[in-house]
Write a structure and sequence with these properties.
By secondary structure, the chain is of the alpha/beta class. The protein is 44% helix and 13% strand. It starts with a helix and ends in a 5-residue tail after the last helix.
Length: 376
């Protein structure tokens, strides 16, 4: 359900559709909450991509790994022992690593993502001369670890999702040119607003959030801000949340904040098409797939000013407004709900931006350039 996983899947499928032989090496885990092995271990073909799944190995609940995580999150100097305990303990796969050791020479290029997991940290070290990393970096304590920076320096190349992520990598690594921006391609999908409203009690204007519901994505902040806005302007709009993860909606707001949980791809686009405004409150993004998708659906956006990546998307596209505190959030939301012409113009500007910068032909060309291969 995460952005890095979605990026991997869509890129692999796009390359396969263009006749490239692609194999996805992954684990049997269903999600990043439990890492419980769920999918069968046998190989399969999904949308043209050969998929090999291996047992997920995690020690995330062990005291040593918990101690390491706490030390890293406190900041400051972290011992190499604690760094290694976290990077190899959060999630890895002995079977996947053994496959890379025994069969890795058969792959022309090995692309790992995201940076934080043991599958990337341990896997990219097996054949660094043919390994590339799409780090999906956030400015967080884990990204500053010396072992992480060493890993990023030692592979064949790095590829980034946005200029903001690339600049962050340059600052962390002390490099003027840490690697190219490749990004991800998007294809618009038709949504049915009537179908969305038939499935929910929402009838008037509403703000949409799509993605993981967790503190790391700032969804508790969005809920708090929207409750204050709704108290100040009763009946003005509702808030709809869709995606994975637990969410706590206070009882007195359950008629205004609608949680639809996990949805299908079509239902997600139905939600985009029905929404009045899309809000991405996260400050930890390397691309923000849902933001770009909402723009393809022609919706204006609200983004957090402290996220360099989404703030720059909004400024470059003209497709949204940024907020840092509640007053800025309320003023921006009030403007977009009040001025329908402005909201529509911003949505169209966002659509043009994504269509221009994140179409698959452009992305695949940049990917081939980054890998040093000729575009077939």
């Amino acid at each position: 359900m995460g952005g890095a996983e979605d990026l991997a899947r869509r890129t692999a499928e796009e390359l396969a559709s263009r006749g490239v032989s692609v194999t996805a090496l992954t684990t049997r885990a269903l999600d990043h909450y439990t890492w419980r092995n769920h999918y069968p271990a046998c190989g399969s073909v999904l949308n043209g991509v050969d998929v090999l799944r291996f047992d997920a190995d995690t020690r995330i609940g062990e005291p040593e790994v918990q101690k390491a995580a706490a030390a890293i999150e406190r900041g400051g100097e972290v011992s190499e022992e604690d760094q290694r305990a976290w990077l190899s303990g959060v999630i890895s796969s002995d079977g996947l690593l053994e496959h890379l050791r025994s069969e890795g020479a058969g792959y022309s290029h090995l692309i790992f993502l995201p940076y934080l997991f043991g599958t990337t940290f341990l896997g990219s070290a097996i054949r660094p001369d043919s390994s590339y990393i799409i780090p999906c970096l956030h400015d967080e304590p884990f990204a500053h670890l010396p072992l992480v920076l060493s890993m990023l320096r030692n592979v064949k190349g790095l590829m980034f999702n946005s200029p903001g992520e690339r600049r962050l990598a340059g600052r962390l690594l002390g490099l003027e040119d840490p690697g190219p921006v490749v990004g991800m391609g998007f294809k618009p999908q038709a949504g049915d607003p009537a179908a969305f409203r038939d499935r929910t009690p929402v009838r008037g204007d509403f703000v949409l959030y799509a993605g993981r519901r967790e503190a790391g994505k700032n969804t508790p902040l969005l809920i708090d801000y929207f409750r204050r806005f709704a108290a100040e302007q009763p009946g003005r709009a509702a808030l709809v949340l869709m995606g994975a993860g637990e969410v706590s909606v206070p009882g007195d707001s359950s008629h205004l904040i609608i949680d639809v949980g996990r949805v299908t791809e079509q239902q997600k686009w139905d939600g985009y098409s029905a929404a009045s405004v899309f809000c991405q409150p996260s400050v930890n993004e390397s691309l923000s797939i849902v933001l770009l998708e909402s723009w393809l659906a022609g919706k204006p956006a609200l983004v957090h000013r402290d996220c360099e990546v989404t703030r720059e998307h909004a400024a470059a596209s003209g497709g949204g407004l940024a907020f840092r505190d509640y007053d800025e959030f309320a003023a921006a939301l009030d403007l977009l709900l009040e001025d329908k012409a402005l909201a529509a113009a911003m949505g169209e500007a966002g659509r043009a931006y994504v269509s221009r910068e994140y179409n698959w032909d452009s992305v695949v060309t940049r990917l081939y350039d980054a890998l040093g291969v000729r575009n077939p």
